[in-house]
Specification:
The chain has 177 residues and is α/β, with parallel strands linked by helices. 37% of the residues lie in helices and 20% in strands. It has helices spanning 2-28, 76-92, 108-117, 166-176; strands spanning 47-50, 55-57, 65-71, 97-103, 123-126, 143-147, 153-158. The termini are far apart.
C-alpha cells in the first residue's frame, strides 16, 4: 500500500513538473489569452461610423460612465442580451451613463434590419473590420466593458449577462459616483 502511494506521488509530481511549463509556454504564445490586461488601463480610443454613416469617436464619451458592448446580429446570446441592455439604458441614461454597442457584423444593412425588429435606444456603431474589437481583445461575443468617467476600464465580461442583476447595478452605481 505504501509503495503504491509513493509511486502515485512520484507520478503526480512528475506530471506537474512536465505539464505545467508546457501550459505556461502555450499561453505565452497567445497574448490574446490575457483577457484582463485592460482592467485598470485607459480604454483604447477608436473612431467608427454609426448607422447613419457619421463618424463617432469613443473618447467623445469621456466624462460619462460607459458600458461598451461588442455584439453581432448572428450571435444568439447577443440577441438575448438586448432587452437587458435596453432596460439598463432607460434606467441610467439621465445620470451620465451611456451604452455604446459595437456591431462586428460585416454589413451595416443587416444591423439596420435587425434593429427594425429589435429597437435600441442607445448608440450602435459598426465595426466590420474589427478595428475597435482588436485592441479590446474581443475573443467571443458578446463582450462588454464597464468604463469609468475618466476612461479607465474597470470590468470585462465575456458572454451574455443579465444587466438587471444586483451585482451589475452595484457596479454601475459605483461608476456613477
Amino acid at each position: 500500500m505504501k509503495k503504491e502511494f509513493v509511486s502515485l506521488a512520484i507520478l503526480f509530481a512528475a506530471a506537474v513538473f512536465f505539464l505545467a511549463p508546457a501550459e505556461v509556454l502555450f499561453a505565452q504564445q497567445f497574448p490574446f489569452l490575457e483577457v484582463e490586461e485592460l482592467i485598470g488601463s485607459s480604454a483604447p480610443d477608436f473612431t467608427l461610423k454609426d448607422l447613419d454613416g457619421r463618424n463617432v469617436t469613443f473618447s467623445s464619451f469621456r466624462g460619462k460612465a460607459i458600458l461598451l458592448n461588442f455584439w453581432a446580429t448572428w450571435c444568439p446570446y447577443c440577441r438575448q442580451e438586448r432587452a437587458s441592455l435596453n432596460s439598463l439604458y432607460k434606467k441610467y441614461k439621465s445620470r451620465d451613463f451611456q451604452i455604446v454597442a459595437v456591431s462586428v457584423d460585416r454589413s451595416a444593412m443587416k444591423v439596420k434590419k435587425f434593429l427594425q425588429d429589435n429597437p435600441s435606444e442607445f448608440i450602435i456603431l459598426s465595426d466590420p473590420e474589427r478595428e475597435a474589437a482588436a485592441p479590446f481583445n474581443v475573443t467571443g461575443l458578446p463582450t462588454s466593458y464597464l468604463i469609468d468617467r475618466g476612461g479607465v476600464v474597470r470590468h470585462k465580461y465575456i458572454g451574455m449577462k443579465d444587466w438587471s442583476g444586483n451585482g451589475s447595478l452595484k457596479q454601475i452605481e459605483a461608476l456613477l459616483k
